[in-house]
Specification:
about 260 residues
Length: about 260
């Protein structure tokens, strides 16, 4: 991406989420999430056409797993490549601490918007990081992330924008910042190959590249499993086959990384 400006892709995702059904949860401030998304979307607010169904399914997958983890007592959430994600607002709960990792340019823009809109984010620690060079574990722990706490780590839409080696290093750093038994949600480009998908995939790559944010990886589910295992995450045994086919992957933090 153009490291000097906020992510255009993140804006497009925010616009798409305005049209996505969301997982219900008691409490929280969904109205603040929607206010932020509308501000971010701006003239993109009309229903996007490219990947809308995929983004709706991806949003539902992450929402469902996150709400389930919070219901199960998880009180530490790490969002890597958070962009303009408003889940810390929508699913806010007493005692839950949120850590948002993102590139400094996008994160600074998000914080300015929150301040201008008067949206409180006192339970969120904003951690600026370039995943290609910065020490993510150190920055998280310095911000108050407890490596002994069971957590849920969300890497939604991030994998395609990182080279596999950079993604593996990031996941290893996230493992070191969280306790064994923590959950990882990773969405990746794992679509089956073949003539039926090559043309749409080529159009998508071209469109994303034109925004200055090219897709840098495409992993099969098996490749993603192996990468996660090397980084200290064991693929969850109870993943739905349909989720895996779409590249919606869950893993559990092992005892070593």
């Amino acid at each position: 991406m153009d490291t000097g400006r906020p992510s255009t892709t993140a804006r497009l995702v925010a616009a798409a989420r305005l049209h996505a059904p969301r997982e219900p949860s008691g409490g929280g401030r969904p109205e603040d999430d929607e206010q932020l998304a509308r501000d971010v979307a701006g003239d993109l607010v009309d229903r996007p056409t490219m990947l809308q169904r995929h983004l709706e399914a991806r949003t539902a997958f992450v929402d469902r797993a996150l709400v389930g983890a919070l219901d199960d007592g998880v009180r530490q959430v790490v969002l890597a490549g958070a962009g303009y994600d408003g889940r810390s607002l929508r699913y806010a709960r007493p005692g839950v601490r949120w850590f948002e990792l993102d590139h400094p340019a996008t994160q600074a823009d998000k914080r300015r918007r929150l301040a201008r809109l008067g949206i409180a984010a006192q339970d969120v620690a904003f951690v600026a990081a370039d995943f290609r060079s910065d020490p993510v574990t150190d920055r998280l722990t310095a911000a108050g992330c407890d490596p002994a706490a069971r957590s849920i780590v969300i890497c939604e839409g991030l994998a395609v924008s990182l080279e596999p080696a950079v993604l593996e290093r990031l996941l290893a750093e996230l493992a070191r910042a969280t306790a064994p038994g923590s959950a990882l949600l990773l969405t990746a480009s794992t679509a089956a190959s073949g003539a039926a998908v090559e043309a749409p995939r080529a159009r998508l790559r071209s469109a994303v590249a034109s925004l200055g944010e090219p897709m840098l990886s495409s992993l099969t589910a098996a490749d993603a499993d192996a990468l996660m295992q090397r980084a200290g995450w064991a693929p969850a045994a109870d993943q739905a086959p349909g989720d895996r086919t779409r590249g919606f992957l869950r893993a559990v933090r092992t005892g070593a990384s």
